[in-house]
Design a protein that fits this description.
The protein is α+β, with helices and mostly antiparallel strands. It is built from one helix and eight strands, in the order H-E-E-E-E-E-E-E-E. Strand 2 and strand 3 (92-97) form a beta hairpin. The relative contact order is 0.15.
C-alpha cells in the first residue's frame, strides 16, 4: 500500500503557472492605472486653465457694446485678435503672442491671461454676426502643456448683450 504525501511535480508547475498569470495581470493593471493618473495630472491643469480663459473671454464679449471689426482678425488666422468696445470702461483687445493669450485695456501694455504652464497654439475668432443683431463671436482655442503628452481644444460661441 502506497501513501501519497504532498503535491506532485505537475501540481506545483500548475500552481506556479497560474500564480504567475495572476501576478502579471495585477502588475499590468497597476502600471496602466499609474500611467493614466500621470496623464490626467498633466491634462487636468491644462483643461482648467483653458476653460477659465474661455470664460473670461466669453464674459467680456457678452458685456461688450460692439465688436471693433476693423481692429480684429477673424477667420483662418490661428493668431487671432479681437477688439471690443466696452461700456464705461476702456476698450479691450485680446491677442495671441508667443503662446500666451494677452489682454490690453485702452491700448495699455498687454498682460497675459494664461500662465507659463501652457502654450496656446491657436486662438481663432470667427464673426458669426448677422446685420441687425448685437453680434456673435465663435472662439476656437487649442493649447498644449509645457509637459509632454497633453493637448486640449475648446470651441464656444457667445453673443453680445444689448
Amino acid at each position: 500500500m502506497s501513501l501519497h504525501r504532498g503535491f506532485s511535480l505537475l501540481e506545483y508547475i500548475l500552481y506556479i503557472g497560474l500564480s504567475a498569470l495572476i501576478l502579471v495581470a495585477v502588475f499590468r493593471s497597476t502600471f496602466l492605472l499609474i500611467a493614466t493618473r500621470d496623464k490626467l495630472a498633466i491634462l487636468q491643469p491644462l483643461q482648467e486653465e483653458l476653460r477659465f480663459t474661455s470664460r473670461v473671454l466669453t464674459r467680456t464679449i457678452r458685456n461688450a457694446v460692439a465688436i471693433k471689426t476693423s481692429e480684429s482678425t477673424f477667420g483662418s488666422d490661428p493668431d487671432g485678435k479681437l477688439s471690443l468696445s466696452m461700456y464705461n470702461t476702456p476698450d479691450i483687445t485680446f491677442s495671441l503672442q508667443n503662446g500666451y493669450i494677452n489682454a490690453s485695456e485702452g491700448g495699455s501694455v498687454p498682460f497675459p491671461l494664461t500662465s507659463s504652464k501652457i502654450i496656446v497654439e491657436q486662438m481663432k475668432f470667427t464673426n458669426l454676426s448677422v446685420a441687425g443683431t448685437p453680434g456673435t463671436i465663435k472662439l476656437n482655442l487649442r493649447a498644449r502643456s509645457t509637459l509632454p503628452g497633453a493637448t486640449f481644444s475648446l470651441e464656444t460661441s457667445t453673443s453680445l448683450r444689448q
